[in-house]
Amino acid sequence: MYATDVKSEYLDQLRERLARERIAGVHLILGLPRDPRLPTDSVDVAVLSHMYHEIENPYEFLYRLQSSLTPGARVGIIDMDRPTQSHGTPPALLRCELAAVGYRPLDFVLLNPADGYLAIFARPANLPPATAIKPCRQ
């Protein structure tokens, strides 16, 4: 199991919590704003919880994430239905950005009574050429 973040202090906090709760087998990786830096073909399920709206360049991030996903892998994104500047991602924008990189939508669930949603996508079978990716309107 892997946990990745772009902030070393968050990984330090997680490392402390894993030790405190005696949880083993989690490999911590300091990622980059545009690259999670996960090993190739190593992830069956990726969960991006309340952080998608923080990604500097979602197209590049998703493009680089694809190589770490195993065939049949799923990507779950938990976020709020808010504008990105309000720490959320409108579902239509999320679907558009993932589709631009070849991810296919599988399910969408509102998280009631909690705020937000869970959107599940399938790994792209083939990545489009980077020059073919068109930004979505916000």
What's this, in brief?
By secondary structure, this protein is an alpha/beta fold.
Overview of this protein structure:
- By secondary structure, this protein is of the alpha/beta class.
- The protein folds into 2 domains: 1-31, no CATH class; 34-132, Rossmann fold.
- Helix content is 23%, strand content 28%.
- The chain has 3 helices and 6 strands, in the order βαββαβαββ.
- The mean pLDDT is 92.
What descriptive keywords fit this protein?
two-stranded parallel sheet, alpha/beta, single chain, 28% strand, 2 domains, globular, Rossmann fold, 4-stranded mixed sheet, 138 residues, 3 helices
Topology summary:
Blueprint (H helix, E strand, L loop, with lengths): L1 E4 L2 H13 L6 E4 L12 E7 L8 H9 L2 E11 L11 H10 L3 E7 L6 E6 L16
**Per DSSP, what share of the residues sits in E-state strands of 2 or more residues?**
25-35%
- The global form is globular
Proportion of residues in helical segments: 10-25%
Tell me which CATH architecture of the largest domain applies here: 3-Layer(aba) Sandwich
End-to-end Cα distance, whole Å, is: 33 Å
Total discrete domains: 2
